Amino acid sequence: MEKKTNFSGPRRPAGPRPRPGQKPTQRGGRSDKDPYATNEQIRAREVRLVGDNVEQGVYPIEKARRIARDMELDLIEISPTAEPPVCRILDYQKFLYQQKKRQKEQKAKATKVVVKEIRFGPQTDDHDYNFKLKHAQGFLKEGSKVKAYVFFRGRSILFKEQGEVLLLRFANDLEDLGKVEQMPVLEGKRMIIMISPLKTQPKKDSSKKDSPKPESKPAEATPEVSKDSNPSDE
Length: 234
Fold this sequence. Notes:
Layout: E1 37-38, E2 46-50, E3 57-60, H1 61-70, E4 74-79, E5 86-90, H2 92-109, E6 115-120, H3 126-141, E7 145-151, H4 160-173, E8 178-187, E9 190-197, H5 206-210
Parallel strand pairs: 2-5, 6-7
Antiparallel strand pairs: 1-4, 2-3, 4-5, 7-9, 8-9
């Protein structure tokens, strides 16, 4: 008696096999975790190839895929909204690694800039000035910007030149730690100056510079022969 085979319905056609090292994708589209469409996932009829390893131009999708297969690389859709979509031929895993590395570098550079405010009056005395100068030095050392301003109350606006001199003196006293990003500008009742911290430069090794040079031994003096002792004169 022959055994009946269990048949649960028509089988789905198998999709393209993934290349060695490439993760299998869902049928009819890319995985939710994949930010780019590749190879058979690209649905456009033609694409624009860019990059250094191909002849740039617009190609039918089948020809672009064939070029990628011949190079044993992947066809990656990097700009799907363009007309036609822009693609590059690269190793997909290597491409993803480079993208993550680039994003990490950009995130590290995009550090949040903190701005600290210092307020003066047009007739600030030396004690108050030095107190606020010390605070500004601490702000610049920690990498924050300093926004210093003189606030003119009522008729004190007549002393705006005095306020400008005060802010320029303030910037001059901070020149070792910061540079002027914006010169004094009058905005309403406030005259503002912006100072950003200087980029820290790597300290040079001063051990070599400060090390004392070895003292050179004085040359031995050659004995002088007096004319009186010349044997030829005897």
